[in-house]
Design brief:
The strands form four sheets. The chain has a four-stranded antiparallel sheet, with helices on one face. It is globular and about 60 Å long. It contains eight helices and 14 strands. It has three domains: 127 residues, no CATH class; 114 residues; 179 residues, no CATH class. By secondary structure, the protein is an alpha+beta fold. α7 runs antiparallel to α8. It starts with a helix and ends in a 21-residue tail after the last helix. 24% of the residues lie in helices and 11% in strands.
Length: 474
């Protein structure tokens, strides 16, 4: 077994280090640091689920939400690693901010592109760049594209999804009328980062502010993307935002985003969100509808999941469906029967389905996959609500049925290891069946270590628990 572990880690290290024009240790360290930044952000949101607000200082997360002091440390930081966590002073010994600056959001002021954690110095990465983590989990660098991941096409598609989400948010606040141009999203505070309007494959420089709406102009809301003004109540499948030139993608394809989907034209010319990722996004959308219903009803959740449809808190049947479900996508919502056609429960189960409303304060995990079959038998995704406060949006959590099982045969053995190693180093577009055991869309050393810890196990049929409460939530 020890020999197997040595071989697996050696192969993974080779995969991890291929491709970048950076020193080997710099790339390795920055990827470890990124996993740790994500862990801190997930822990902060788990804290919100309990207390209804973000912690007053990052060190409050230790040890209840993060038990390992090294989670707060960038291995490339010249400062010594912490042995415990007892303060949040930047660069201080045993500080939660020894390596990272924690930029906690204020109430009602969190956007998908809000920067929440970043390196406190380029020295963490050999002086070459700073990592920045946004609220939606996207990590980029300053200057842009300093590392080979995340892929350019992923950043572009994520930026376009941010735009689509902000457009929908604007419409929700303005009687379902959409803004006439993308600059309104910036002017009225629906987005926080000028780089959201930019495709990193664009030859134009990234904007440092948004000052105009001219195509391809400096600091323009249309520097990289075209917007199709829908006026009011668009078809959720109609394209809202797309690349303004295929040259953004080397002339190979054009990204297109609607309220429901991300696609490329011509089809299959690039990777788009997977069924697993779309299923998790839809779970979050249903949870957001439940959350909004509760805020409008004295913090009481509905008696049935169907009520978020009938009361228009969820506005498209697609959101009640996991694309991994063998049942067909609903075209309307007419009932709440499990697995029934056009049902609000066709793919997901609502924890409080019954005859009586329940207090939001009682909610833990309110909606989840109704079958492990939605994810090829590997587990279920669940979404909780943030304890009666609208400060945070719901997070999807992944619960593997058999940690380490990648091929779905309820055993952890060589075939699982081969699949994981074949996808090792894939970031942002990985599925559990690719080797993404912890459900964070990456295949990393953490997944490999989990597989090796469970190697040789034969699992039962019941869904398991998260591998680590501080790292399994997405």
């Amino acid at each position: 077994m020890r020999r197997l572990v040595q071989i697996a880690l050696a192969v993974a290290s080779l995969v991890l280090l291929t491709g970048p024009r950076l020193p080997d240790d710099t790339l390795r360290n920055t990827r470890i640091a990124r996993e740790r930044m994500l862990t801190v952000w997930r822990a902060a949101n788990n804290y919100v689920n309990v207390y209804g607000d973000y912690p007053s200082a990052p060190h409050v997360l230790f040890p209840e939400y993060i038990s390992d002091p090294l989670v707060f440390y960038h291995p490339g930081d010249p400062d010594p690693p912490p042995e415990t966590i007892d303060n949040s002073v930047p660069n201080a010994p045993d500080s939660a901010q020894v390596s990272f600056s924690m930029i906690w959001p204020s109430e009602f002021n969190l956007r998908l592109d809000t920067i929440v954690i970043q390196d406190n110095s380029p020295a963490n990465n050999a002086g070459a760049f700073i990592n920045r983590l946004a609220a939606d989990g996207l990590i980029e660098t300053v200057p842009p594209l300093a590392t080979p991941d995340p892929p350019i096409e992923y950043i572009a598609q994520q930026n376009m999804r941010r735009l689509a989400f902000a457009l929908r948010e604007y419409a929700s606040d303005n009687g379902e009328y959409y803004p006439r141009d993308l600059k309104q999203l910036w002017d009225e505070g629906y987005l926080d980062s000028p780089r959201t309007f930019w495709h990193p494959g664009d030859t134009d420089a990234p904007p440092t502010d948004i000052t105009n709406n001219m195509p391809n102009a400096i600091n323009s809301a249309r520097i990289s993307f075209a917007y199709f003004y829908p006026f009011r109540n668009p078809d959720p499948w109609a394209v809202l935002v797309q690349d303004n030139d295929p040259a953004n993608n080397g002339g190979r394809f054009t990204n297109r985003v609607s309220l429901n989907t991300t696609e490329v034209a011509p089809p299959l010319s690039a990777r788009t969100p997977t069924a697993f990722q779309t299923g998790q996004m839809n779970l979050r959308r249903v949870a957001l509808g439940l959350q909004a219903y509760a805020f409008d009803n004295d913090f009481w959740l509905p008696a049935s999941i169907e009520e978020v449809w009938t009361n228009q808190y969820v506005d498209d049947p697609f959101y009640f469906w996991n694309p991994g479900d063998a049942d067909p996508r609903p075209t309307d919502i007419t009932n709440a029967k499990p697995d029934a056609a056009n049902s609000a429960a066709i793919s997901f189960v609502y924890e409080f389905e019954g005859d009586q409303p329940v207090p939001l304060a009682d909610a833990t995990f309110v909606v989840q996959d109704n079958s492990v079959a939605n994810s090829r038998g590997l587990g279920v995704s669940r979404v909780g609500l943030p304890g009666g406060s609208p400060v945070s949006t719901p997070w999807a959590n992944w619960y593997p049925d058999c940690p380490g099982d990648v091929d779905g045969d309820d055993r952890v053995h060589l075939s699982d290891l081969a699949i994981l190693l074949g996808n090792y180093g894939v970031w942002y577009v990985a599925n559990p069946w690719d080797g993404d055991i912890d459900g964070d869309s990456h295949v990393t050393e953490r997944d490999l270590q989990t597989l090796l810890e469970h190697f040789g196990e034969v699992c039962g049929p019941e869904p398991g628990l998260p591998i680590d409460g501080s790292t399994a939530a997405r």
